[in-house]
Amino acid sequence: MPVASFDKEIEGFMAGLVKRNPGEPEFQQAVHEVAQDIIPFEIDHLDYKDAHILERMTEPDRIIIFRVAWEDDQGNVRVNRGTRVQFNNAIGPYKGGIRFHPSVTLSVLKFLGFEQTFKNSLTTLPMGGAKGGANFNPKGKSDREVMRFCQSFMTELSRHIGATVDIPAGDIGVGAREVSYLFGQYKRIRNEFTGALTGKGLAFGGSLIRTEATGYGCVYFAREMLARRSDGLRGKTCTISGSGNVALYTAQKLIELGAKVVTLSDSSGFVHDPDGIDEEKLRYVTDLKTVQRGRISEYANAYGCEFHQGKRPWNVPCDLAFPCATQNEIDRDDASALLKGGVQAVVEGANMPSSLDAIQAFQNARILYGPSKAANAGGVAVSGLEQTQNAMRLSWSREEVDRQLREIMAKIHAQCVHWGGDGDTNSYVNYVRGANIAGFVKVADAMLAYGVL
Ligand code: NDP
Ligand code: 2IT
Q1: Alpha helices in 296-331 (DSSP H)
Q2: Ligand 1 pocket member 212 (CB < 6 A)
């Protein structure tokens, strides 16, 4: 079929989706990116098309929306909205993180749940896709306020999840502290000690390397991409956005493997350290962001470098860029700036950090572009390994989990090359197409086997 007819078919599909999901720009964007690859693919796989698999995959299995009432330290009653989007459980129980951030909307959680279905399929582990969260801002709240919020949130959520049903984990604003409060309340209400959440503390069923997994996995994926071009990480100048869980462990692994990290950011701006952030400076930031819960600008004061208020780091020339903060943090202008600065690879730690036209710009320039659903799958992969350890009632060593993580990232990379390359070992790989098709096929085959559900 000529490209123009694909465009028309994609347009028609998207018009229906937009009509069914009005006012949900992030969800529409995530589906559009996938539809651009799956609709042309279905022409040679009419069984998927005839069974309307893509249409069914864009409709969540169910969405649970609930009130979360809690009391702040002054005794005021506060109310937030909690949501869990159980998107697709064709290949395993629902699995995906929980996000607490004021920007959380149904659109954001639907885009994340949709992406998660493909990502989890890519890991090769038996996990379906889900996402949850609340428009709650943990910033500036006391520990006790966060605890009361988490307990209230879980009081309702506990009815809908479970080790064989739906297994939440962390995401933006949900780290070790929040997962602990959530798991404690789950255990108390259900009176069972099962691996119903991942990212747990090591003393109560957590896995070694889960904290580090998304960042480490992202760097392992970058290493695979570069190795295919007979290149490596050593000596590469890297920009990173964010300074949360994913950004910090991306930085740590890059530094360990001999790359030079020159930026980190948070929602107030970015720091540029041309000398490179070394292990000692990274220990400072990790303490600053995870223990003190401070601002990244304090790094600039501590180490005498520049802080760029309200700016993103993409104007800083680099070899490799790792967006690790949030969705749509690289727009078309940012992509142009990165390309102008000589970027060779963009590897996504965050979910959907690049806008559709930014992706187009990277692909037109034929640089290495590692989309989030492939590049950041290491986090959920080790969550899957945490579930396995819980089910077996034992714990694997750091080395064992790290070995499995490396192996899984290599397998994800190989699937992207298989579906996104043209068979020639030296050719350009469209990692977006590779990840979309590889993630789709497994879920689609399961859905076909089940009949019309
Ligand atoms: P954290 O809450 O630990 O850190 C988030 C970081 O991003 C902070 O530095 C935060 O700055 C910054 N940030 C958040 N929202 C915005 C915004 N709207 N504008 C600018 N900066 C922002 O979250 P994670 O590190 O866990 O998550 C980061 C990204 O990685 C997200 O896209 C998440 O979905 C994705 N991800 C996370 C995984 C995990 O295992 N945790 C797994 C796979 C993907 P500030 O402190 O100022 O808010
Ligand atoms: O986006 C993600 O993959 C996550 N936030 C991790 C999900 C998980 O279940 O570990």
Answers
A1: 297-303
A2: no
- Whole-prediction pTM value? 0.98
Residue 132's CATH number: 3.40.50.10860
| Within a domain: 239 | yes
| Residue 251 in contact with ligand 1 by CB distance below 6 A | no
**Ligand 1 atom at minimum distance from 383 CA:** 40
Residue listed under structure tokens 């994340």: 112
Catalytic positions are 131
222: nearest Cα among 375, 357, 431: 375
The count of domains in the chain is: 3
Predicted local confidence at residue 444, as pLDDT: 98
Q: Are residues 228 and 326 in the same domain?
A: yes
Asked if the structure places residue 208 within a domain, the reply is no
Q: Which ligand is nearest to the CA of 352?
A: 1
Residue 189 shares a structural domain with residue 232: no
Going by alpha carbons, the residue nearest to atom 1 of ligand 2 is: 97
Both 229 and 185 in one domain: the answer is no
Nearest CA to ligand 2 atom 4: 97
User: Which ligand 2 atom is the nearest neighbour of the CA of 383?
Assistant: 10
Query: Of 357, 375, 393, which residue constitutes the final position of a domain?
Result: 375
Tell me the per-residue pLDDT of 252-305, one tens digit each, with 9 for 90 and over: 999 999 999 999 999 999 999 999 999 999 999 999 999 999 999 999 999 999
| DSSP 8-state class, residue 423 | S
- Domain of 230 in residue numbering reads as 213-375
Judgement on whether residues 151 and 275 belong to the same structural domain of the protein: no
- Provide, rounded to the nearest whole percent, the portion of the chain with pLDDT above 90: 97
The pLDDT of 159-165, averaged and rounded, is 98
First-last CA distance in the chain: 30
Report how far ligand 1's centroid is from the alpha carbon of 350 (Å): 7
Shared domain for 228 and 364, answered yes or no, is yes
pLDDT greater than 70 at residue 4: no
Q: Please check whether residues 310 and 179 belong to one and the same domain.
A: no
Ligand 2, CB cutoff 6 Å, lining residues: 95-97, 116, 119, 169, 171, 198, 351, 379-380, 383
Span 310-346, pLDDT tens digits? 999 999 999 999 999 999 999 999 999 999 999 999 9
* Helix residue ranges, H only, 287-377: 297-303, 332-340, 356-364, 372-375
Q: Is the distance from CB of 133 to CB of 169 less than 8 angstroms?
A: no
Angle, alpha carbons 337-340-341 (nearest 5°): 85
